[in-house]
Each structure stands twice: as structure tokens, then as C-alpha cells.
User: What shape does this take?
Amino acid sequence: MANQEDIFKKVISHAKEYGYIFQSSEIYDGLSAVYDYGQNGVELKKNIREYWWQAMVQLNDNIVGIDAAIFMHPTTWKASGHVDAFNDPLIDNKDSKKRYRADVLVEDHVAKIEAKIEKEVKKAAKRFGDSFDKQQFLETNPRVLDYQAKADGILKRLGKSLENEDLADVKALIEELGIVCPVSGSKNWTDVKQFNLMFGTKLGATADSAMDLYLRPETAQGIFVNFLNVQKTGRMKIPFGIAQTGKAFRNEIVARQFIFRMREFEQMEMQYFIKPGTQKEWYDTWKEKRLKWHLSLGLGQDNYRFHDHEKLAHYADAAADIEFRFPFGFKELEGIHSRTDFDLGSHEKYSNKKLQYFDPEENKSYVPYVLETSIGLDRMFLAVFSSALQEEELENNTTRTVLKIPAVLAPTKAAILPLLKRDGLPEVAHKIVEELKWEFNVVYDEKDAVGRRYRRQDAVGTPFCITVDHQTLEDETVTIRHRDTMEQQRVKVDAVKDIISKEVDMRYWLQRI
Assistant: This one.
């Protein structure tokens, strides 16, 4: 486990050292679970957002985007259920005075059981070599089956208790499993209590006339309240989707794991409006579509899995997470939810406005059902960044730290390096920068020996280094070095743009979907 912790610590320090993520207001000792994106982080974040937007909006002719305000009329949150039911079950340890999410304590315990299964698989793979059949082993090995049954049983019970709001049983489960406080190691727990996660604020000039407002805890409601506006002005026919990206705010009591769980974060959501009765097929379709989008980035198929929800939200008839293998284990990256007609039906009731769709084929009006895909942009950032960070042993017994961010998402696409700071080489290099900067984000770097500059660009995640040397002056060729393979090739200056384009163009990547 320490190994995973060490890897995660390296991810956090690398993110700071190379201008990706800083602690918010760090000069004032920071603000817990709030982070700022640095000069490289903001570019990576923008590129992930754009990769999602192109796949979701640009490539689907029946999906459009909006950007709804963060502030919404307070009744919105009553209608959505957030005022009454947007809670986390919390438990305090009496000895360490630390507060935890009760469900996360149980899930972490299950993760340890799953780690034992992984251990058994690794041992067996070593023993049987090439003839090892992982699937068969998972389905037949008695020890693995016992671990799996134990894990499933715990999650089932937790799901049932949370669904029935039986918080006493959640505490009983924690005690039965012998879960200890990670800080004090003691089992001295308080009762489990519910805690509402919305941030409250005021709107108005004076305290007397001010209206109680909330910072939105999700972006989805902005889509639902605009359903008719978009449908009518865009003359949209069902099925159609509305997408948006934007900030959301949750007063997470137990915010941790770096940018995985923050108090201010960004979501990328799409609500797909469908005919009632077709939700099962659309649910399966979007599960498949979204997984393909993730896999197109090449972060490794083994790093993803589906997790079907035991505990469904009161409005859902099916829900699954796409989980990613973060340095701290498999955790939710994206949710796909079949939300039925709860949202539009509820807003119709609270607003006294008809939120229905007239179906010309059926010649009748109905409240559409909704299929949701929702992904945390910050979590996606962490998935990309943590899986990209690698230490490689090189042939000459040295190591290099390299950030193998998919080229399409990399903050800087190329670094232009003059071999020396004289003989007219910087002038030629600057000319190449001027030419390429219209197409790509590029940097100029002339400090240190060229080998050290390569290492620096590897660590920051730049896919290409273009070196200008004396031969460039003679025949207009440069050396282009590829980050992932470290291969170098001699090419004409005129060919550089096309070589980079092929590797970083969204079109080439999105075609894999």
C-alpha cells in the first residue's frame, strides 16, 4: 500500500513542480481541498474539456451545448431533491477527533479485500506463466470466490442500509468489520449522521431583503430548467441531448486525495432526452459510447471497469460508474444514470409550468425521460496525469521521469531548441516558433545542454522537441525527437508542421471512437 501512496505523493509533487496544480492561496497556508491550475494545468484542462466537447457536441448532430448560471432560483434545489436529500453519512472518531464519510470507510475496507484478489491473481499468473487464464481463475479459485463473496456482501448491505436510511446499521457494519480510524487506529466511533453538502449564500442588498441562495452542487439542473428553451429555439426532436461544462460546489467534509474530491470542481455533463420506455437501450448505448471515448485516449483498457450501483438514487432506474484505476485504487470517474422523468416532472410540479414534448409521430405530449452522462473534469485530469507519470530505466543505467500525456491533450505540443546560443541558430529557431505558434502551443528553450532540455520537456509532457543545429543552416533540416520513444529523425523544416499535426490533431484521436 505504501508503494501506491509513494506513487501518489510523486504525482502531487510533480504537478506542482511543473506548473500543473498549486494549492489555492498557498501564501496564506492554503485552503483545504481547493486547488488552482497553473500554466500547464490550465492548458491540459482546456484540452480535456475540448476533447469531450468535440466528441459530445460537435460530432453529434442532435446534441447541443449551453452554459447555465451558477446561481439558480432557490426552488430549483427543492424540486431537485437537494435541499432534503443531498447528504453524506458522516462518522467521527472520538480519539483522533477526525471526521470520515461512513460509506467511504466501508468502501476502503472492500478495496483491501479486492487488493487480496489482485495478489492471488499475480501469484497464480507467475505460477502458471503463459497458460494462465485469468477469467477462469477468477471464476473457479475458492479463495478468490470467498473474497469476492465477502466484498459483494458488504457492499450490498451498505447499499441497503443507505437506501433505507438505516444509519445505525451503517455504524454496526463499521464495527463488525473492525474498521479503525486511519489516524488514531482506534475503533471508538460516534453514531453516523447525515450532513447536507450545499454551500449557502445570500442574494440582495440588505440583510432583511436578502434571498437565501445556494451555489449549485451540480450542473445538471441548469439543463433541465432550460429544456423547453433549447427544444423550442433549436426545434429539437426527441431523442436529443443538451451538454454543458462548468463549476459546481460541494461542502465536502472529508475532501481528500488531492483533486479527486474538491469543494469547487468542474463537471462535464450531458442530459439525453428520450421517449419513455426506451431508456434501457439508451442506457446500454451511452455506457458503450462513453467507455469508447475513454479508451480512445490509450490510457490502457485494464485501467477501466464498470461498477453497477447497488444503491440507486430515488429517481433512477439504472446507474453505473466507469471506474478508473487511480494510484489509490479503482474509483468513480464518470456516471451514467437513467433518471426516468423525475427531473422534468419535479420541475413541472414546483414551477407550475408544462415541461413536455409534443411528439408528432405519436401525436401526443409527454414528459421525456432522461439519460445522463456526468464526468468530473478534475478527476479526468487526475486520471490522465497520474497514469502518464512514469519513471523509465534507460539503457545507460540512468532513469528519466516522463509525463506521457496523450499528445492530443498535451499542454505544449513542441519545444524548439537551438543547439547553441550563437551562430544564428537562435534566430532560425525563433523563426520556426513564429511559424508553428499559429497552429500549436509551442515553447522556445535555449538554457542548459540539449540533453538536459530534453529531460525537462519529458518531465513536463511535451511530445516533440525540435533541435536546430549547424546542419539546419546548410540544408534546412532539423532533428525532431519523439517523447515516448526518444527516437530522433532528421526532417525538412517544412515537414515539421505535418508531423506534429498527425500526432496531435483531435480528428485522428476521435476517429478511434
Q: What stands out?
A: The first helix runs from residue 2 to 17.
